[in-house]
Automatic annotation (TrEMBL), chain A:
Keyword Transmembrane: yes
Gene Ontology biological process: transmembrane transport
GO cellular component terms attached to this protein's record: plasma membrane
Protein name: Polyamine ABC transporter permease
Broad class of where this protein is predominantly found: membrane
Stored InterPro entries: MetI-like, MetI-like_sf
Region (Disordered): 1-20
UniProt subcellular location: Cell membrane
From TrEMBL, chain B:
Record's signal peptide: 1-22
Signal in keyword set: yes
Gene Ontology CC annotations of this record: outer membrane-bounded periplasmic space
CDD domains reported in the protein's UniProt record: PBP2_polyamine_RpCGA009
The keyword Signal is annotated on this UniProt entry: yes
Name of the molecule in the record: Polyamine ABC transporter substrate-binding protein
Keyword annotations from UniProtKB, A to Z: Periplasm, Signal
GO biological process: thiamine transport
Gene3D superfamilies: Periplasmic binding protein-like II
Annotated Pfam families: SBP_bac_8
GO molecular function: thiamine binding; thiamine pyrophosphate binding
């Protein structure tokens, strides 16, 4: 109560001290407007992350007890253990693959949506967003029904005399499931970044004799790069951090950072190790963000 | 400002005045789902009927780890009085100073508890015994399997489901296999069990049956699975004969849920009364009849049709597991599984 009161009165005081200065009042106004979100982010995001960082240096005693002492053991056992290095590399590669597949599957849809008009466009947009109204768990179970040994696809293959394949409880299942789950995010991000794509530029290129293929590669793709970069960033971050779908479709065979964090936090109760792995995920996100801003600067 | 003072005064009055009139509330932290449903009917409701001045509030969590998370988070101001959780997690909680000791001073039933229900270094005591069993789909498997080796049957390729290590189903099955294949002390060396699990691996369709292993067996997605007796028995009853339960001749391992008094819980006297009741023959036999967990109180006499469906008649075949010693090597066993067992099931 008192902390909240102090937080709201402080900017007002700051504004009152220097009424004449225009610069100062702008700063004060900005502080006033940004204050609430800074407070919320500080309390609900930065503080927990800082606690997580501290936890990653806490000693992990046998039998999942968290010790009082601080140690580098969690970090050294993670960064110098072949199993965890492999886990980190595999997580990044799998997420990159899922991101690429999501992009390939979503790009044509987003392009068509961008060019459609009126009610038809609204209808298609609702169709694209509608999967987000269902929980990822439910959609993942849907994929189990489709991909299972006696599911839709394998039954069709059998009807054509093709031998059934294991499409689920392995990496194939995880990649298929996550690609579908991430598609709405990718399509929305692409649409948001397609603002510069002007049909008149395409028409001009055609008038000057460019083939449709050339128009696509030289005009459409470069102009839509901001959307592609945004969509890829979003999909990659979501792919690295998703654990429900890999848990349900991986069959305990696919080891990714997110599932390992879940196991360490919930099953073996090694919270310091789980915190260490979480910080590594955060570092990967940071790297992805840096890459994204570099890419954006290059294309704009 | 005046209103603020008035409001805080009113709040102060309300919080101090209420408990004098209202009943005491015991907050029980325990498993969600079927456990909550059956435990409420068999134990909590009769307890509240006998103690009208005490109300038991059930705070459900999906697993022991989540319960430990709650207790760790509330350590500064506990809102919970009693926790029912797996013994290995209870050991961690005890080490972190979260629990008060349950002994003769809390309950006179302490003396009647089986030795397997008391643990060095754990504040709480055993309140239920459960055990690993085989569950099978009756359309696919006509005769009940009698040995854990059924998991290796080449005819069941891709038709087995069980949780892998670090889950205790995976670790427990490895311990049973180790004992069957001549292993002496799995804490030191569990290679015999690991080699046997490597033979099971090619049969396994999923190491992560979701939401649980029971529906995957009932609906025929797999033919054979490893499950826990209590949930297996209840699911078998609900399956229209599609799923049956088998306790193999080589024996089984126990999973023990302990009941723990939370240190600094808000209503400790009422909490002690509840712990005493939960360990009484009356509560223990009622819950066994409701969900086929075996009682931890040796004074309980179960009806034969209930006893036969719990592990109580086969206690001589139980392979002793020191879960507390095991927790120190659980990580190593998990790593072994990932290198030697799971890759063989692709």
């Amino acid at each position: 109560m008192s902390a909240a009161a102090a937080a709201t009165t402080q900017p007002a005081n700051a504004a009152g001290e220097r009424p004449g200065s225009g610069m100062a009042s702008t700063v004060a106004l900005a502080t006033l407007l940004l204050g609430p979100i800074i407070a919320v982010n500080g309390l609900a995001f930065l503080m927990p992350v800082f606690n997580l960082l501290l936890l990653s240096f806490r000693e992990s005693l046998g039998g999942s007890t968290i010790g009082e002492a601080y140690t580098l053991a969690n970090w050294s056992s993670t960064l110098f253990d072949s199993y965890y290095i492999e886990l980190i590399v595999q997580s990044i590669l799998t997420s990159l693959m899922i991101t690429a597949l999501t992009l390939v599957a979503s790009y044509p849809i987003a392009l068509y949506l961008h060019r459609s008009k009126g009610r038809w466009r609204t209808f298609l947009l609702v169709l694209v967003i509608s999967p987000l109204l269902t929980s990822a768990v439910v959609r993942t179970y849907g994929w189990i029904a489709i991909l299972a040994d006696d599911g839709l696809i394998n039954n069709m293959l059998k009807a054509f005399g093709v031998e059934a394949m294991r499409l689920i409880f392995n990496k194939v299942g995880v990649v298929i499931g996550l690609t579908e789950i991430l598609m709405p995010y990718m399509i929305l991000a692409l649409l948001a970044g397609f603002g510069r794509l002007d049909p008149r530029v395409e028409e001009a290129a055609e008038t000057l004799g460019a083939s449709p293929w050339k128009v696509f590669w030289r005009i459409v793709v470069p102009l839509t790069m901001p959307g592609v970069a945004l969509g890829c960033l979003l999909s990659f971050v979501l792919a690295v951090s998703s654990f429900i779908t890999p848990k349900l479709l991986g069959g305990g065979r696919v080891f990714l950072l997110a599932t390992e964090i879940y196991d360490q936090a919930i099953v073996t109760l090694n919270w310091p190790l789980a915190a260490t792995l979480s910080m590594i995920v955060l570092v990967i996100f940071g790297a992805a963000l840096v890459l994204y801003s570099r890419l954006l600067r290059a294309v704009i | 400002m005046k209103t603020a003072i008035f409001l805080s005064g009113a709040l102060l009055l309300a919080t101090t005045a209420l408990p004098a009139h209202a009943q005491q509330t015991v907050t029980l932290l325990a498993y969600s789902g079927l456990f909550q449903e059956r435990y409420t009917k068999a134990v909590i409701e009769p307890f509240m009927a006998a103690h009208p001045d005490i109300k038991v509030e059930y705070f459900p969590q999906p697993g022991s780890a989540a319960m430990l998370g709650v207790l760790r988070a509330q350590k500064a101001a506990q809102q919970t009085d009693v926790a029912i959780m797996d013994v290995s997690v209870a050991k961690t909680g005890t080490d972190e100073g979260l629990f008060d000791k349950v002994d003769e001073s809390v309950t006179k039933n302490y003396a009647d508890l089986y030795p397997n229900a008391k643990f060095e270094g754990v504040a709480g005591v055993g309140v239920t015994f459960d055990n690993l069993v085989l569950i099978y789909n009756t359309d696919a498997i006509k005769t009940a399997p009698t040995s854990w080796n059924a998991l290796k049957d080449p005819a069941l390729k891709g038709k087995v489901a069980m949780m892998s290590a670090p889950d205790i189903v995976g670790i427990g099955t490895t311990i049973i296999m180790d004992r069957m294949n001549g292993g002496k002390d799995f804490i030191q060396n569990i290679n015999a069990g690991m080699n046997a699990m490597a033979e099971v691996a090619p049969n396994v369709q999923t190491w992560e049956p979701k939401p649980e292993v029971y529906p995957t067996v009932i609906n025929g997605q797999v033919s054979l699975g490893v499950g826990w007796n209590a949930r297996s028995q209840v699911n078998a009853d609900k399956s229209d004969g599609k799923m049956k339960v088998a306790l193999p001749q080589e024996g089984t391992i126990l999973q023990v849920n302990t009941i723990n008094l939370v240190k600094g819980g808000p209503s400790s006297d009422a909490a002690r009364k509840f712990v005493d009741y939960a360990l009484s023959p009356q509560a223990q036999s009622a819950f066994s009849a409701a969900m086929y967990y075996a009682p931890t109180n040796s004074a309980v006499k179960l009806a034969p049709d209930v006893a036969n469906r719990t592990v109580i008649g086969a206690m001589d075949k139980v392979i002793p597991v020191d879960w507390i010693a095991l927790s120190t090597v659980r990580d190593r066993i998990t790593q072994d599984w990932r290198r030697k067992v799971i890759p063989l099931s692709r």
